[in-house]
Amino acid sequence: MSGIPCALMRGGTSKGALFLADDLPADAAARDDLLLRIMGSPDLRQIDGLGGAHPLTSKVGVVSRSEDDAADIDYLFLQVAVDKPVVSTSQTCGNILAAVAPFAIERSLVPARDGSTVVRVRMVNTGTVAALTVHTPGGEVTYEGDAEISGVPGTASPVEVAVEPPSGALLPTGNPVDRIAGVDATLIDNGMASVLVRAADLGITGDEDPAKLESNADLVARVAEIRAAAFPLMGIAGTPETTTTPKIVLLSEPGEGGAIRTRSFIPFRVHEAIGVLGAASVAAGVSLQGSVAEGLAPAPRADRRIRVEHPTGFLDLMVDPTGETRLLRTARMIMDGRVHPRSPRKEST
User: Fold this and answer.
1) Each residue's pLDDT tens digit, 85-135
2) Nearest CA to 184 among 296, 309, 307, 319?
3) CA–CA–CA angle 131, 168, 306 (5° rounding)
4) Any idea which UniProt keywords this protein has (predicted)?
């Protein structure tokens, strides 16, 4: 058995398997079956695959040259469920996005320049384009550097990310606040469909750790109720059980000098940090007059920097007047080789 070419990479605060599209089946059903076997799903431990038994470590990026003149490469994101035989393309991932650009250079899809290389990436799930700047001294990708991001130990080479504003409506309902499932909420999409809710409106302070929130059965049930109510209002296809958007983000006053404090349901577990595009949607909500963030966030900074606090630190974003979002991530190659999927399940006779 020769296996399938694969790179296991960390991108931002996520980890996933990256593949060239040509190395996977073109048929979506066959591809998803293969990815479940590669990642070890469905199994809470993912003991027989690459997955790390958490949504943040059970991710896949599929990369190919782009036929879009605005981009160098296409990036399809797939969320592989841990405990269910489900592979979802309903969202993209801005953290794995940070790994896609160096991966594309490593695979010779984009030629490296001496110093730094800009890779324009079309996120196939949403159609949004991002420009990522990767450090390439001597024409080679380096993962060594002194950049730090919250939620990741140590330092690494920075990956500068600039995400173009999405083409769709920022507010799917046209309202800065909607009353859904008995609470005020801002339904917003600045790259990640999200529902922003004040933590206090759900009876919590907003500084709880993820495990405490996940163990609060009443809170989990309320979050599910809010999420289900948001589906038709945001025009999201699929069902709450099979689609990973919208994310429910609980907001509270910042505790560490930032603009806002967050706890993000993604959608059933609570993020140990926050997704890049989820943070972009939060930042847009903080900047929006009349949103549920009003009264929680301090006055906007003159330099337009918005610091979004999360359980393991913070994420700084810059949102310019055109709607472009800029931020800093890091990425690292963990393993580059061939992965051997488990054998297909045999049907009982």
Assistant:
1) 999 999 999 999 999 999 999 999 999 999 999 999 999 999 999 999 999
2) 296
3) 55
4) Isomerase
- Which region, left, alpha or beta, applies to residue 260 given φ > 0 means left and ψ of -120 to 50 means alpha? beta
Bond preceding residue 5 cis, omega within 30 of 0? no
- Tokens linked to 323: 């709607």
Residue with tokens 């990640």: 192
* Confidence class for position 238, pLDDT limits 50, 70, 90: confident
What is the distance between the alpha carbons of residues 123 and 69, in angstroms, rounded to a whole number? Answer: 14
306 strand-pairing partners: 317
Range 213-222, long-range pairs (CB < 8 A, 24+ positions): 213/263, 213/265, 213/270, 214/269, 214/270, 220/268, 222/181
Residue pair 41/85 in contact by the 8 Å Cβ criterion: yes
CA distance 150 to 89: 27
331: phi then psi, degrees, rounded to nearest 5:
-145, 160
As to burial, measured by CB atoms within 10 angstroms (0-12 exposed, 13-18 middle, 19+ buried), residue 318 is: middle
What number of other Cβ atoms are within 10 A of residue 130's Cβ?
27
Distances (CA, A) of 40 to 7, 54, 62, 92: 16, 12, 18, 21
Say how far apart CA 342 and CA 319 lie, in whole Å: 44
User: Of all helices (H) and strands (E), which one includes residue 192?
Assistant: none
What is the DSSP code string of 316-327?
EEEE-TTS-EEE
Q: Which residue has the tokens 């759900």?
A: 202
Cα separation, 51 vs 65, in Å, equals 26
256 Cβ contact list (under 8 Å, min separation 6): 309, 314
Quick one: angle between helices 276-287 and 94-106, nearest 10? 130
